[in-house]
Amino acid sequence: MAKVIFLIVDGMADDRIPQLNNHTPLSYADKPNLSRLLLHSELLYPSVLGKLAPESDSGVMADLGYDPRKYSTGRGWFECTGVGLKPEEGDISLRVNIGEVRDKKLISVRTYLSQEELKELEKDINEKVSIPYSFEFKAGVGYRAGLVIRHKGKKFSPYISNNEPGYKVRFYGRHKLSFALDSHSNRIEKIKPFKKEAVETANVLNDFIEKASDVLVHSQVYSKRKKRNEPLPNFLFLRDGAVEAPKMFDINRKYGARWAAVVGMPLEQGIAKAAGMHVYDVSEREDVSEDLEEKARAVIDALKRFDAVYIHVKQTDAVSHLGKFVEKYQIIEKIDGILIGKLLEVLDIEEGDTFVMTCDHATSSLLKRHINSNIPVLVSNKKFGGISEFSEEACRSHHEKRVKHATEIMPLVMKLWQTGN
Fold first, then answer.
1. Residues of the chain with CATH 3.40.720.10
2. Cβ contacts of residue 262 below 8 Å, gap of 6+?
3. What is the mean pLDDT of the chain?
4. Dihedral sign, Cα of residue 59, residue 269, residue 147, residue 195
């Protein structure tokens, strides 16, 4: 049976960087293992959300064949299920960033914390924040967390704004997603209701933010970090509140293939579970090489039991938000050397296997944010001829024009798989 490997490298696409001889990190990186796949490959350059700069949730959904404008009910549901929370219909589930505010001005929406620090803050918030509703706050990875507030008979409303600047909410009927803005504001905004039904929801969340901020400032984590002159966790940014589960089709039944996911972050775990994939229990290791080694082992194991595997690598996006373009191209080289290198030991393009490498969105290392851009896609299969390069520019110049939207990638890939078996 032919196999499919679908690799999403988070925020891989980028701007041209003057310090990299006007290359992007992807085009600058040395990729000898990927070059071996170019003998039988095709390039795609689809859009994700048209003129909008997508978040990771909408980008991943689109790559996997789900139009976020038809399936997304808000990123919060994926985040919360990914960290192990179980929101019910009518509860509100939100993505949380732990950040820093000073004199009511934004310093950072990302205060990177150790897992030990995150768990300590999780305990403090759950025990010390008091609001008229029951809730669960659970740590994610780095600066991330999930929050579920339980409704008391009267369901919460999704029609609220985010209080994290840089991400604006857009609705498509009852479907909801956020997109990135070119925002330079450092003002701290309260969550606002868009409809009268959402007034109570906004009030509850603003109350939670205020009380949680007080708990953070008086925490041992805050005190110790202040003494060490480290970035401080003293404010919560909530976004993408969802009050119902997305009704996504089962990817296994749709294509007749058994899917597994090797993903370490809560968001991608939540999406994979909603799609019906078997999710491998892998951690998101701080050491990039160790992380890629673990993911490679998990993928190789998954290919013994499943027809197709979705892999997600997060670190490229994280360093882009910090403006670290050198680290970004170095991570891409490690992906090539460690992950792709090991996968080529079990992948056989000549026998009908398919390999896909793409990203969920472009993240500019110069602007340190997501940008509106098409995404580069490499599809390797024996049915294709050769190409010379995989980069943003190569995809822009030589892409297969019939694939215009990211949602069309998966149907193309699975048609290759179906005809190869």
1. 4-72+248-419
2. 280, 282, 295, 298, 299, 302, 309, 310, 311, 312
3. 95
4. positive
* Residue 49, amino acid: L
Which pairing describes strands 369-371 and 362-364: parallel, antiparallel, or unpaired? antiparallel
Q: What is the DSSP letter of 183?
A: -
Q: What is the mean pLDDT of residues 134-152?
A: 95
Instruction: For residue range 340-352, list pLDDT tens digits in order.
Output: 999 999 999 999 9
Q: Find out whether 266 and 144 touch, Cβ atoms under 8 Å.
A: yes
Nearest Cα residue to 405 out of 41, 50, 56, 4: 50
pLDDT tens, 405-416?
999 999 999 999
d(CA 14, CA 244): 34
Q: Show the tokens assigned to 209.
A: 């933010």
Question: Which runs of E-coded beta strand occur in 128-242?
Answer: 135-139, 144-149, 167-172, 175-180, 235-242
Cβ-based neighbours of 419, under 8 Å, separated by 6 or more:
none
CATH of 4-72+248-419, one of 3.10.310.30, 3.40.720.10, 3.30.2130.10, 3.40.1190.20: 3.40.720.10
Distance in angstroms (rounded) separating the CA atoms of residues 271 and 50: 21
pTM of the model as a whole: 0.91
Tell me the per-residue pLDDT of 3-25, one tens digit each, with 9 for 90 and over: 999 999 999 999 999 999 999 99
Coil, strand or helix: which one is 412?
helix
Q: Where are the beta strands (DSSP E) in 10-91?
A: 41-44, 53-54
- Under the banding of pLDDT at 50, 70 and 90, the label for residue 183 is low
- Residue 376: other Cβ atoms inside 10 A: 27
3 state DSSP class of 330: helix
